[in-house]
Specification:
Blueprint (H helix, E strand, L loop, with lengths): L2 H7 L13 H9 L11 H5 L9 E2 L10 H16 L1 H8 L3 H13 L6 E4 L2 H11 L7 E5 L4 H14 L2 E5 L10 H11 L4 E7 L11 H12 L9 E5 L11 H4 L3 E5 L11 E5 L16 H7 L10 H5 L7 H4 L2 H11 L1 H20 L4 E3 L12 E5 L4 H10 L2 E2 L1 E2 L7 E3 L7 H17 L1
Parallel strand pairs: 1-11, 3-4, 3-5, 5-6, 6-7
Antiparallel strand pairs: 2-8, 7-8, 9-10, 10-13, 12-13
């Protein structure tokens, strides 16, 4: 007996066809409401999909994004269904609906559904990845001194469990003037015969620098060319602050594992995220949380799966989640695709360039983020002479701008405009920063 038969024979499956709200249906509904016009190719129509208050200029969506209309409608649809009959609705859909989310993510990323596992956040994804890696005593993890608390601690916990060691290096002296050669040469020089993992962050939230992942992947590939498969180095990427900004195909990046939350730049439901794993890297990672998918369960009750169990089935954590959010994730990806990945990247870079060029004209403000778009994305970090990051953020708030401070020992303030912002809002924030810096 497999799981589908078990559910059917227990009377819990009702065979209803799931009718998900789609982007097109949400657009059709928005056409009837003057307050929420449909997407028409303009940035104003994108902006109107959100319920953001414009009492303040929102320049911190990188932390926690507002939901656009299609995501809100999907969440409300599922919430109502669960409130009407939670067990019935879950049993009708849980075996198939997460495939919809993974298929949408795969389409957006240029991947395959089988390569994607669903998580609740970047933090969960990194923890599952690093705690699941098949490392042994004496293996080395190469990381950096620029990474977030979550990466550092997830690696520390993993190393403590399996006896691996961690080498953390500084990849550059000055992030604003870093170069591809500087970064790749530092990583290449730090790889030793014991290195099995290179763990990096795509876009640093500490300074705004974007890693040249393709070039780093080439360094790793070159090192692997001199090794046996059993000693292969795997490249792992925390991708959250490039995901939803950069127009990339995941397979062209060259990494082996990629983790990201989808409730930031993707504008997906809060409490959602993904792990992508290259097919030939699947065997390097063991599950930590049992999956609720078909084949793992069928094996547990004694059935033999038809074929090999893929990463999607094995690594998406089971359990009861905030399903109205998890099952609406596809609308976040569909929203991005409806706008166009190239347009999102171009617009975000345009606004980020405005911020960096504006900062460059201020005598008391120094940008920490490279001007080069190849080494930067949507995060724009800076320092105001004579002021702490917390003081700058508070001053912004008093002037009607929601900014953020980086959560590091050496904290910096950040302005992170995205596709919901206007050029006028960016200029408003720059004018506020100019006044703040003059009063420091």
């Amino acid at each position: 007996m497999n799981r589908r038969n078990f559910i059917s024979q227990s009377g819990l499956a009702f065979g209803a066809t799931l009718a998900l709200p789609t982007l097109s249906s949400c657009e059709a509904e928005s056409k009837s409401s003057p307050s929420v016009p449909a997407l028409d190719g303009s940035w104003e129509s994108v902006r109107n999909q959100f319920l953001l208050s414009h009492k303040n200029v929102q320049m911190a969506q990188m932390l926690f994004a507002s939901h656009p209309l299609p995501v809100r409608k999907a969440i409300e649809f599922h919430r109502q269904k669960f409130d009407e009959s939670p067990v019935e609705y879950w049993e009708e859909n849980f075996l198939t609906i997460e495939d919809v989310q993974c298929e949408a993510a795969a389409k957006y990323m240029g991947a395959e559904k089988e390569e994607i596992a669903l998580t609740d956040s970047t933090t969960m994804g990194l923890a599952l990845l690093y705690s699941g890696l098949k490392l042994k005593e004496g293996d080395e993890i190469l990381s950096t001194t620029h990474d977030h608390y979550v990466t550092d601690k997830a690696l520390d916990y993993a190393a403590a469990k399996n006896g691996a060691t961690i080498k953390r290096i500084a990849e550059y002296e000055d992030p604003a003037n870093a170069t591809v050669d500087e970064i790749t040469s530092k990583i290449g020089a730090a790889i030793s015969e014991k290195t099995r993992i290179v763990a990096i962050t795509w876009v640093h939230s500490c300074d705004g620098l974007k890693h040249p992942v393709k070039e780093i992947a080439e360094v790793v590939k070159q090192a692997n060319s001199q090794r046996a498969e059993a000693d292969r180095i795997y490249l792992c990427v925390d991708g959250v602050h490039g995901f939803g900004v950069e127009n990339i195909n995941i397979k062209e990046m060259g990494c082996d594992f990629f983790c990201a939350g989808t409730h930031k730049w993707i504008f997906g439901p809060r409490g959602t995220g993904i792990i992508w794993a290259k097919k030939d890297a699947w065997n390097m990672m063991l599950p930590t949380i049992p999956a609720f998918s078909d084949d793992p369960y069928n094996m547990w009750i004694g059935s033999t799966p038809v074929g090999p169990i893929d990463f999607n089935q094995l690594q998406s954590p089971g359990g009861f989640h905030t399903f109205e959010h998890r099952w609406s994730l596809h609308e976040g990806f569909n929203f991005q695709m409806a706008i166009g990945k190239e347009k999102v990247e171009s617009r975000t870079r345009q606004l980020a360039k405005m911020v960096k060029e504006g900062i460059a004209e201020m005598s008391n403000v120094t940008c920490t983020t490279p001007m080069d778009p190849y080494l930067s994305s949507g995060i724009n970090g800076f320092r105001v002479k004579g002021m702490s990051a917390e003081e700058v953020v508070k001053a912004f708030h008093h002037k009607g701008v929601i900014a953020s401070a980086s959560p590091y020992k050496d904290s910096i303030p950040r302005l992170t405009p995205c596709i919901i912002n206007t050029e006028e809002e960016v200029q408003f924030a720059l004018n506020a920063l100019r006044e703040i810096s003059k009063s420091a």
